[in-house]
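Repro:
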Amino acid sequence: MQLLLKSLTHLPLPVLYELSRALFRVAYYVFRWRRPLAAENLRNAFPEKTASERAAILKQSYRNLADLIVETLYGYGASAADMQRRVRIENPELLRQCTERGQSVVLLAAHFCNWEWLLLAAGAQLGVPIDAVYKRQRIGGFDRFLREGRARFGGNPIAADNFLRELMKRKGEVRAYALVADQTPLNRDEKHWSRFLNQDTAFFVGADKIARILKAPVLFVSMRRERKGFYSARLNLLAEPPYDRSADRDNGTEIIERYARALEAEIRASPADWLWIHRKWKYAKPLYA
């Protein structure tokens, strides 16, 4: 599998986009892969939209996802210069101001636009080691392929189950810690509940805790699709130290709530660019949460 995937990274992007069109047709029309789930998520998130408006968003989201898959393959073989050209980071100086003060930074992104290219472009442009949390894959060859691809320009993918240990090892170093923070915690995990896209929604609280441990500023990374194969990204300050110690003791999650609000604004501005097929709403909010 790893050999096949690596061979695809050497194909020109126009050829890969032909593969994207085929992937879209098969997933959307033939297998209807997770379409009922995605349609339900959109219906709950945008009750004010008409059925035809939601259907158009749904279809475009599958097209975007197919493009994301082939763009990821291309990115794992592209040059650093090409990634810088295709993902323009508008204000990298915001992060550099933090690192020049000797502060590590927490970067919060989402399954929005092309998060794979975002990591590659950040590694090529920002000039700071980036530890990126990821979910370990069950298939060993696929897991190695992802880790090697994401690490090409200085990124350091760390499996979520090893992250806290690795974080403590590097606590004294100036680094960036990147989290795609819109995944859903397990029901038994600690979580923050927010009203998000018209629904009670659980979020991981790890980013809040990491920021307080490191006394690190937290930046939300917004992303825009400029045209096919080209994106822009902007760093937005969510929070910065000194943090309130009493809020830390009381399990404060102000940073996570700010992240939820920033992400919701991004999704409402361009709903087809979010990953509607993931199971964000796996369980209901407990009565006394």
